[in-house]
């Protein structure tokens, strides 16, 4: 019998479809053809990207030259522009504003053939610290209300460049799904006087049905109302509303569980295309009690169809308890 | 300069990215390989589907035999099951219910090689009348709260069968996006004492910047805050909250504009994969004043990436005013 499950944060229902239950081998991996050719993100091609806004260089080489381990540059084809004043205006019944914002690319490694799953722990930690530094810097701009950090890995997940990278978009508005999630957490807090994410963590650590991995400070779980096969969330055990306001030691722990989780996915699903998004509060002074930052990783194994677009309602052919078994056991 | 636009119904912002503006020829059509082999939806194979729940037969042939022009059958691999009582229960902090509901397939034509865009008007009208009859019938079941009608066309849009068909899913809950849309329309109505969709129709008929096609009773438009390139909505000019409660003459007009719009898309985008979803109120007695049924057609030309999943915030590389120019002029 299929099951309808409700996400305790958003109130979003999903169908967990046991009739159609699909195992890792049922998902045919995307055909992988190396694109080849010139790569503007590779070491040595620094003049082919916009100037760097941040870089980590072990040997103090000058900006925009070789010798870096990580670079952050503006997107060459930005979806938003940083220059100008924010103008809001109407057009009849419609509302619009000019596209002020930032759009940056985090180049995670100088080497083309590496992926986040194969990078050493120190490099992954640096990726997380780069996210943190850019969020903190962009949040100083009073025009910008939210900084979104996400990664597309693989063509099917929307990555147009092969070289391992993530993206940062700073927006003059708080996106709708973000405010909905924060509102959901706030409503739960008002009802229970507890953080909904802390409650999820407590139950998952106790039940262990959906617990994929764990270290001193973090856990990764297959969420109860998973929308996608092998969807995985990473949460800090300590209640932090914002990604960028943790103690330094936490980023190492975060890097370790992210690495561990991505390696498990690679093993079980043969380097699947995936997206991840950092869910964080941009106003920890307001959301401090009720919101809890986390990462949502969504392997792209199925096609999202009209049903999902029309309703925000998902049919997931792999119960999270089965996904967890495969992932937990993978070394 | 890119533009941020707000959808007046949902409050959803999109980036209309002029820097990256993409024309129809920039979207490489999906490689089309006929799957071939046995098709359970073709005429003559009636014994290979579950028994029909509705069929149109011009010559009165018996049920589940040849001689039909349209059939509706239960999905052989249903996401939900119609048998049983609805049981709601908790699992710690989580909520779930058993997967009661209906999942049906509308086989739009007996012939494998036809598509909705190439079918004669009478057949398209019959497809719409089949939707209507099934919605009315399923709404009689007190366990079911919402009936969702949608179509996936093409592999990239999630169609697993090649033969032209749509799907109907009846749910024991109202999906989140549906209630959000109805709530958005209600809020607008309380503020303005006018239906937001009627206001959109008035402005689009007057401005004609985004008006793709029009007949006596319907119009199709590229919505102001389009999420996807060549997204198109079809709306009735008369205020009807529910798809299934129109006068009979309206379905012919609806078939005509749907046919016209799909033909234009085919011409401009070379038979693109697409999804459409009928947005309708299941409680016209409650939503009668403020809600207005419509169809949203979403060609699947770009990959939806992590950014969109994380935020409900879309980057659209084709301004709707440009999409409209191509589509309006296509014959």
Protein architecture, described:
The structure is a homodimer of 331-residue chains. Helix content of chain A is 27%, strand content 23%. With 331 residues, the first copy, chain A, is α+β, with helices and mostly antiparallel strands. In chain A, a hairpin with a 2-residue loop joins β5 (88-91) and β6. At the A-B interface, β1, β2, β6, β8 and β9 of A face β1, β2, β6, β8 and β9 of B. β1 of chain A pairs antiparallel with β6 of chain B.
Percentage of β-strand residues of chain A = 15-25%
Q: What is the helical fraction of chain A, as a range of percent?
A: 25-40%
Strand order of the largest sheet of chain A: 3-4-7-9-8-13-14-12-11-10
Computed structural class of chain A: alpha+beta
Helix and strand topology:
Two copies of one chain form a homodimer.
Chain A: E1 3-6, E2 13-16, E3 52-56, E4 70-74, E5 88-91, E6 94-98, E7 102-107, H1 121-138, E8 146-153, E9 165-171, H2 176-192, H3 196-207, E10 211-214, E11 218-221, E12 232-236, H4 248-269, E13 274-279, H5 284-287, E14 294-299, H6 306-311, E15 314-316, H7 320-329
Parallel strand pairs in A: 2-15
Antiparallel strand pairs in A: 1-2, 3-4, 4-7, 5-6, 7-9, 8-9, 8-13, 10-11, 11-12, 12-14, 13-14
């Amino acid at each position: 019998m299929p099951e309808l499950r409700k996400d305790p944060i958003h109130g979003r229902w999903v169908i967990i479809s046991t009739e159609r239950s699909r195992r890792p081998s049922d998902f045919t991996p995307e055909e992988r053809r190396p694109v080849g050719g010139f790569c503007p993100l590779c070491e040595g091609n620094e003049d082919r990207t916009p100037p760097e806004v941040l870089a980590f260089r072990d040997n103090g080489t000058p900006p925009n030259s070789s010798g870096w381990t990580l670079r952050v540059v503006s997107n060459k084809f930005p979806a938003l522009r940083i220059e100008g004043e924010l103008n809001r205006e109407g057009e009849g019944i419609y509302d619009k504003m000019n596209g002020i914002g930032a759009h940056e690319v985090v180049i995670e490694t100088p080497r083309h053939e590496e992926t986040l799953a194969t990078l050493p722990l120190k490099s992954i930690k640096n990726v997380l610290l780069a996210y943190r530094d850019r969020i903190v810097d962009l949040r100083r701009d009073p025009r910008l209300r939210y900084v979104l950090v996400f990664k597309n890995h693989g063509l099917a997940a929307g990555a147009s460049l092969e070289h391992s990278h993530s993206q940062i978009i700073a927006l003059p508005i708080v996106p709708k799904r973000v405010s909905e999630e924060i509102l959901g957490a706030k409503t739960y807090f008002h009802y229970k006087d507890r953080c909904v994410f802390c409650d999820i963590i407590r139950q998952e650590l106790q039940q262990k049905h959906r617990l994929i991995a764990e270290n001193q400070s973090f856990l990764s779980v297959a969420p109860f109302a998973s929308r996608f096969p092998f969807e995985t969330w990473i949460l800090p055990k300590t209640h932090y509303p914002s990604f960028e306001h943790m103690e330094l030691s936490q980023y190492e722990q975060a890097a370790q569980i992210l690495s561990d989780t991505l390696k498990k996915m690679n093993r079980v699903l043969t380097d699947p295309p995936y997206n991840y998004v950092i869910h964080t509060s941009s106003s920890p002074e307001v959301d401090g009690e009720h919101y809890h930052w986390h990462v949502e990783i969504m392997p792209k194994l199925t096609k999202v169809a009209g049903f999902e677009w029309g309703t925000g309602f998902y049919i997931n052919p792999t119960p999270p308890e089965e996904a967890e078994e495969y992932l937990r056991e993978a070394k």
